[in-house]
Amino acid sequence: MRRSALIAFLLLSSPLALFGQKLTYEIRFHGAIAGKDTFTIKKSKQGYDVSTQYSYAIGSSEGHFANEYRLDDAYQWLQASSNNQTLAIRYVDTVDKTRTRLHISITQNGAGSNSELPVRPDLELLPSLDPAAAQILLLRATTHPTQNGKYNIVAPSFGEPEAMASLNSVRDGVSPAALATMQLPSSRESYDAAWQKGADVSGTLNGKPVAAHVYLLIFGSFRWVFLADDDSTLLQMNVLPRQPVFVKQGFALNPQAVEALSANP
């Protein structure tokens, strides 16, 4: 029993297999590959540093982003710096030491604004539609779960009807000015979110069979579906009820799993 407890502790406290690797994801809209996302997670003095870059091109709309995230040793957010290189907008979200306030800074072309948002200790940030942010949530939820499966999610206003309309318009090749498909809205919303475990599905990773654990994050009008391997490495992320889908390079769901997720995500 003591040996088992020690092994369990080491698994939770040691860097997982994904650390230090460069992970690559395809960005898909309505089944078509529209871009690519890469990120790395590295150990740092305060905990972990995450660097992510992604870009997309859909019809006449395109975007390029470079984000930097800072975490403590328990995968809790310290700061998120999100840079929309296409529109020269920079967002910096900083959690205060009491973990009760989120400081939000937005700058563009020399002009800026600052605001604060009250938050709870179970805070999780989703600064953008970004697999790196999803990976951070996976690490936190699987190694340090809350007792009731609830989280305080702070994210751009993904649930707003305007954002949904912008995402849907991508299918018709329209370049929406309000959201620019992947652009971060200027506003931040605080959501009460539920984290749930779904039924496992199967797929392949680089041609080899792999079991994918399914997790659901429900907030606002959205369901984010996370598929992860045994090391909690993100394999796929679906933003429901619409798009986009992020798929780890080399991963493919089995046809039956695709049908199962579509019927009952």
Question: What does this entry show, briefly?
Answer:
Helix content is 16%, strand content 50%. It has helices spanning 2-13, 131-143, 161-169, 255-263; strands at 23-29, 32-43, 47-58, 61-72, 77-84, 89-95, 101-108, 111-118, 123-125, 150-156, 188-197, 201-205, 208-219, 222-228, 234-240, 245-248, 251-253. It has a 17-stranded mixed beta sheet that branches.
Average of per-residue pLDDT values: 82
Distance between the termini: 37 Å
Net shape: globular
- Give me the Rg, rounded: 18 Å
Q: Residue share in helices?
A: 10-25%
Keywords: Signal
Protein name: DUF3108 domain-containing protein
Signal peptide: 1-19
Topology:
Elements (H helix, E strand, L loop, with lengths): L1 H12 L9 E7 L2 E12 L3 E12 L2 E12 L4 E8 L4 E7 L5 E8 L2 E8 L4 E3 L5 H13 L6 E7 L4 H9 L18 E10 L3 E5 L2 E12 L2 E7 L5 E7 L4 E4 L2 E3 L1 H9 L2
Parallel strand pairs: 9-10
Antiparallel strand pairs: 1-2, 1-16, 2-3, 3-4, 4-5, 5-6, 6-7, 7-8, 10-11, 11-13, 12-13, 12-17, 13-14, 14-15, 15-16
Describe the structure in your own words.
By secondary structure, the protein is α+β, with helices and mostly antiparallel strands. It has helices at 2-13, 131-143, 161-169, 255-263, and strands at residues 23-29, 32-43, 47-58, 61-72, 77-84, 89-95, 101-108, 111-118, 123-125, 150-156, 188-197, 201-205, 208-219, 222-228, 234-240, 245-248, 251-253. The protein is globular. The model is unreliable at 3-15 and 159-185 (pLDDT under 50). Residues 1-19 form the signal peptide. It comes from Granulicella rosea. This is DUF3108 domain-containing protein.
